[in-house]
Amino acid sequence: MSPTASIVFFYDIARLDEKMLLEELRKRARVRVIHTAARALPLGEPPREAGEAELAVARGVSGRRLLYSALAAESWGLETVNSSHAIMASQDKVWSHMLLSRRGVPTPRSYAILDPRAVPTAAEAIGFPAVFKPARGSWGKLVSLLRDKSEASLLSEALEYVQGDLKLGLVQEYVDKPGRDIRSFCIGDTVPAAIYRYGSGFATNLSAGGRAAPAPVTGDVEDLTLRACEALGVEVGGVDIVESTHDGGLLVLEVNPSTEFKNTVRVTGVNVAALIADYVVSRVRR
């Protein structure tokens, strides 16, 4: 079947994930590719390389490039997977936690930190150990475990020398997990795959040396994943879920609007890229 849908594909770094997705999209649609690194994008008037695109797919390692490519595409009159609003909400941990809480999605108890000097007070209110997370950032950067008030005070002082949003964020309750968390995937109204991410210490991020293994998509995992993505307006994304060893309950930590999926494909055999491509083409044809 000859591809009929026309899509513009944004990316900044060609990870294996982007290569896999682009390959699957090209089997199903006419794809115009825009590399967002080291360039400017016009607002309002689409550039020539966008062609007659009907939909945009935004991918990015840089959070700002991801957001700005979606904003540019929307200024050209295109809908974007994911939308700029979903990207903005997901990238800000305070914003996303508010939306999740408002929709009744279970999350760790949290305080919004408006000034670094408030970290010790918030941590003490939640109870030690507690966790500080900067408002923006990924791969666990600057996420800190606070075991007592002394460590909370030391972090508070250190954050005074940090620039920008990284000094503000959340103090959350520490969830005692069984050495792993869950990364599940939403694609539209489906949850096709999930993995366990194992770690030997506090962090389970695969970029920090964690190990991936297949995880069952239970009814609870499916329900939480879809509710979290719906709360933030994310059509395609990864949801980080933690299991509490205290009561066995599941809590949502965050939603990633440009998630990596290569390890999920490797350990589960589920072709996530093909499923995303099918969904994107179906969006064009609505």
TrEMBL record:
Keyword ATP-binding appears in the UniProt entry: yes
Cofactor entry: Mg(2+)
Annotated TM spans: none
The keyword Nucleus belongs to this UniProt entry's keyword annotation: no
Keywords of the record: Amino-acid biosynthesis, ATP-binding, Ligase, Magnesium, Metal-binding, Nucleotide-binding
Pathway: Amino-acid biosynthesis
GO CC field: cytoplasm
PROSITE patterns: ATP_GRASP
UniProt cross-references to InterPro entries, sorted A to Z: ATP-grasp (IPR011761), ATP-grasp_RimK-type (IPR013651), ATP_grasp_subdomain_1 (IPR013815), LysX/ArgX_preATP_grasp (IPR054562), LysX_arch (IPR011870), PreATP-grasp_dom_sf (IPR016185), Rp_bS6_RimK/Lys_biosynth_LsyX (IPR004666)
MF-aspect GO terms: ATP binding; coenzyme F420-2 alpha-glutamyl ligase activity; metal ion binding
Domain ATP-grasp: residue ranges: 97-281
Alphabetical GO biological process terms: lysine biosynthetic process
Family the UniProt entry places it in: Belongs to the RimK family. LysX subfamily.
NCBIfam families the UniProt entry points to: LysX_arch, rimK_fam
Protein name listed in UniProt: Lysine biosynthesis protein LysX/ribosomal protein S6 modification protein RimK
Species per Swiss-Prot/TrEMBL record: Aeropyrum pernix
